[in-house]
Each structure stands twice: as structure tokens, then as C-alpha cells.
Model the fold of this input.
Amino acid sequence: MPRGRAFDVIVIGAGSVGAPAAVSLAESGLRTLVVDELPSAGQGSNKRAIGGLRATHSDPAKIRVSLRSLEIFSTWQERHGDKIEWHKGGYIFVAYREEEEKSLKELLVFQKASGLNIDWLDRRELLEVVPDLNPHGLVGGTLSPDDGNASPLLAAHAFFSRARRLGAEFRFDERVTGLVMNGGRVAGVRTDKGEYGAQAVIDAAGGAAADVALMAGIEIPVRPDSHEAAVTEPVTRFLEPMIVDIRPAPGSANYYFYQHDTGQVIFCITPSPSIWGHDVRETSGFLPMVAKRMVETIPRLKNLRVRRTWRGLYPMTPDGLPVVGESREAPGFILAAGMCGQGFMLGPGIGELLSRLVRKDLTREDGQTLSYFSPYRDFSGQEKLK
Ligand SMILES: Cc1cc2nc3c(=O)[nH]c(=O)nc-3n(C[C@H](O)[C@H](O)[C@H](O)COP(=O)(O)OP(=O)(O)OC[C@H]3O[C@@H](n4cnc5c(N)ncnc54)[C@H](O)[C@@H]3O)c2cc1C
Done:
């Protein structure tokens, strides 16, 4: 392999995971190549994300990884100078029924024990934080004040720029079509433009991660399902936290929304049943469905004008946890897939974990995290806040 085509590690995908992973890999001195079939960083599912960043999860691995991601996002501008529109507004999970009150309070005990800054607020306390919440039937909710939001596109660009400054190389408009294998080990990738060598190849291909894994002969249970989102006109700040309502309703499971740093309200809803596949054309059913639910929760929103809707993919796993780890069948092939609805918030934390995995410098805590995310786990569990 000519020197210009030989790397220590190749990352397939410059998305929510691949772009920050390139930063961590290059920071640790690894000669890093990132290949993406799209024209620039973050153009896949990454730019469809609405920008929510939370460590409020229901398992220790995602909590740990996201706490680290939050540190990276929240200090990025002061450390590196790029504005990524980080805003520490917190997350609120509202309860309008006993069912949600009970499940949120049950989780709270575990979340606090896992190091999360989170509390239960009763109706009056919650209305002090969000005075516009519909008070009728409101029981209370959890508030995690350290969560926040940022711009997925600005963040991807910031990660890309920093990784490049650190020496990582990027090939855009180039599609990985196969893997180069040598004696059962991965030895590089083949693309529609050439071949590159590396002892480690990371599959961070988002909604296409299962297809890429098949190139190594591995089946992973990652299937894209589509979600829609929208953004309103910008208005003066009136809402601090992201509001998440996990009550099911006809046609939808949870929905969530927040006011971005630049004033727009951005929102999306989880369709029920799920809509599987790669189709990213908007539907006409989304906006009336989500708008009705949001206006019920914050009646004042009825005055806002929606500017744009879009649809994107969650790379879903059966249990809602990512699939991260090295393949036993094809050593050197590392999965960083199945981020579900949380790839943006998990990305930087997973990126650092991948760097330690490639350098075989894992901590004891990493071992625990990787056991939760293992490609070989039993996928029958069900994550509560996916
Ligand atoms: C409506 C909506 C709202 C969301 N909101 C949030 C949110 O608030 N917070 C959050 O954390 N997450 C959110 N998500 C989820 C988030 O977008 C995904 O989890 C995340 O983007 C997945 O990251 P990824 O790096 O795995 O995939 P991607 O960002 O899609 O990156 C994968 C990259 O791989 C490239 N690729 C694929 N195959 C190949 C190949 N063969 N060769 C070369 N390149 C290839 C693609 O072009 C792509 O750029 C949301 C998603 C949607 C749809």
C-alpha cells in the first residue's frame, strides 16, 4: 500500500459519530482517514437531528457517555473558538398522568445514583420553570438542568475542522464498497475511487451501518426508521428547557421540542407504529399531529409560524442501545452503529471511547460501557427513555 494510502484507522462515515471520532483518533496521534459518500461532514442523519443533548437516560452506559459528550459540547467554544450554538437550557420530562409520574420517579432513583443532576419538581415548581406549560392535569416532572442543545451542522463542521487541523484526512463524495481482508483480519477499505489500508476500520455509517457490516460478513440488528421534525420562525426567548412528553397518543409515542439559541422552536415526534426504511420524503400527517400535541402542552405556541419540516432516519436497534465494539469474526472491524435517536448527544463521548478501543487503552469503566453496547448482547431488553 503506498504511504499516502496507508492509515492507522479508517472511519466510514463523517456523521454525528464519525466526525467527533476523527477528532479523538487524531488527537491521540493515530493516522486517520474518514470516508463519506456525501459532499461534506454531517450531511446524513446528523443534520436531521434537532440538536437535543442530554445525559438523562435510563442505563449507566449512555449516561456516562453522554455526560462526557456534554462536557465536550459545553466547553467547545471556549476551548476551540467555534460557535456551535450550545445552550444549557436543561431537559424536562413532563407528567400529566400517574403512569408517567410513577415511571419517571422510579427512574429518578437510579439516575441520581448514576451521577445525574436531576430532580422531581411538583406542579407548582415546574410552572415556575416553564410558566407557559398547560397547568390542567399537570402532575409534575423531572428537570435535568445541565442538559442542553446545540447545532448539529455547526458541531459537525467544528469537529471536521479540528480533526483536519490535527492531521486527519477526509475523502468526501467517495463511497465505501467493500473491505480489504487479510488472513481473516480487516486490512482496509475499497471505495468507488480506490483502496486504503488500515489495521482498524470503524463502521460509523449510520442508517447504512448494517450494509457496511455485511461487507465484513457480520449481521447487526440496526434498521433505519424515519422521524420528522420542523422549525418555526425565531422569537424572543420564552422557553428554556427541552420539553419531552412521553405520553402515547393515536399515531405517536413521545414528542419533544425546545427553543434554539437563535430563537426558533424546533420539534419532532416519534411515530407509532414506527415507519421503517430509508424514505426521507416528508409526510402531510406529521405537522397536524405534532402541532396539536404541542399546543395542548404549551397553548402559547399556537401563535408561532412553522418555517420548514424535514424527515430523517434513526438508526434503530431492538433495545434502544447503540452497537459499539470490535467484531470477533473480523478482528480490526469496529462497530459504532445503532445510535437510535441519540447519535448527536452520544457522538463525542463515543468518539473518545473508540479512540481508546483502537489504541487498546480501555479503562475499567469503558469495559462496563462496552458490555452494555456489545454487538453480542441479548437484544431483548427495552430501554425506557429511548
Ligand atoms: C428528526 C430527527 C431528530 C433527531 N433529534 C436528535 C436529537 O435531538 N439529539 C440526538 O442526539 N440525536 C437526534 N437524532 C438522531 C441522530 O440524528 C442520529 O442518531 C445520528 O445522526 C446518527 O449518527 P451516525 O453518525 O450514526 O449517522 P450519520 O450522521 O447519518 O452518519 C453516517 C454517515 O455515513 C455515511 N455513509 C453511509 N454509508 C457509507 C458508505 N458506504 N461509504 C461512505 N460513507 C457512507 C453517510 O453518508 C453519513 O454521512 C434525530 C434524528 C432525526 C431523524
About this structure: The longest helix spans residues 60-80. Residues 130 and 257 are 13 Å apart (CA to CA). The chain has a mean pLDDT of 96.
